[in-house]
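S1.2 Input.
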Amino acid sequence: MYLVTAEEMRRLDRAAAEEAGVAGLVLMENAGAGAARIALELLRGPGRVAVLAGPGHNGGDGLVLARHLAGAGIEAEVFLFGQPRGIALENLRAAKGAGVAVHEGGEQAGRAQAADLIVDALLGTGLKGPPRGTMAAIISRVREWDRPVLALDVPSGLDADTGQVPGVCVRAQVTATFGLPKPGLYLYPGAAEVGEVRIVNISLPRTVIERYPPATRLLTPQLASGMLPDRPPWGHKGTFGHTVVVGGSRGFLGAAILAGLGALRAGSGLASVITPAPLDLEVTAAAPELMTLGVGDGGWPAEAGGWLDTVLARRPAALAVGPGMGADPGLTGLVAGILKRVSCPVVVDADALNALARLDPAELRSVLRPDVVLTPHPGEMARLTGLTVEAINADRIACARAAAGRWGVIVVLKGAGTVVALADGRAWLDPGGNPALATAGSGDVLTGVIAGLLAQGLAPERAAALGVHLHRRAGDLAGQEMGKAGVIARDLLSRLPAARAGLEAASTNSNAAR
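S1.3 Output.
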């Protein structure tokens, strides 16, 4: 499922009219009619609907909705905020002609408070910056009224591209989004205001979408299930790849263990943890499923010397570098040296990211390559890019996309609404936030999951996207069973197989349906 920015949607609308002959008036009619059907579902019988309409296309959608509701015998009133123009003006005339009561100027908008359903058709996707003046005032009143709200396209006050709420925002029970969903509906803080997202088919031609495909896709279960690696019945542990985790240090050994177990729980046939000696003995005691190699003497050696030759002799299919390695400045040269010498795909996380952040931009670019997956949280991304955490979270998709393009890698920007961005500008957004994942070691499990999928032969972009989705599904399962607080990283590990099995079942059912 594509996610479309406001600009991408405008381009698709233009192409629909100019290249496919589907006029804007037709698209608006379909949008308003589809939203009217949702309004009827929400009413569940007779009732009164108040449509708050702005002067642009969003208001035009609301006018079409009001006309269709009136035709269905529903009492629908429109309260206009601004003078409609273009095709919205045509639909104003049509609504009046159909007997819809239209109150211009918004002076009587207080009457909307008594409606059974309020329809927000004020601003739509064109908003940049906070609502002002009369618009801000009516949005504030809608929030105070505490009535069910159906928002058209996006709740007014929400940035459709970023999910930011720069001022006051409508809080919707349901958002009917038109044609294709918008990224801001799934990114926080705005995602908390949209309620249930319903996608309305407006007959946007498929040929137009294929000609001008949006750059971002929503990482749905259906999409993720198509990324699952094969699991042939004749396979053995060597078939499913060897994942090597380079990580751990005194006091932080658990991170490397969690990453190694994450790789196994994701389906990797073998997993090893490389860690400073004698900590390797503690790894064996804590997780006998993991192979180990102790290097150095109580700490990480300054260079990737003979011990890396030993690691490479084990023929790893994927490497994960960074979990729990520590903050020693000497790690910068070590991590850079590892990246230069290994030829298999690599996941770089945690302390290895902080080590790379100490390189100058040219050196950083020189040690990275297309099969490297970086998995920063916003703080680590800030250190890598020089941006503030606030700037990163203000436009998560754009930030991840820019970094992936600059470094020529895959970037997994973690958080509520994790973004997987590719160097060519494409991106996936995994929707939703889950406080059950806000626990120490959760990110280390994700690192292992992605590396384990790489070891099974998935292309790096698919391993990153599927890994993010599986990890979140495991968190969802743990949260459903145990609650939002108190889930620990080991709980995620135990639910990863069920998360994968759920996707496999969805894929089987989908194929059977076809």
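S1.4 Remarks. The mean pLDDT is 95.
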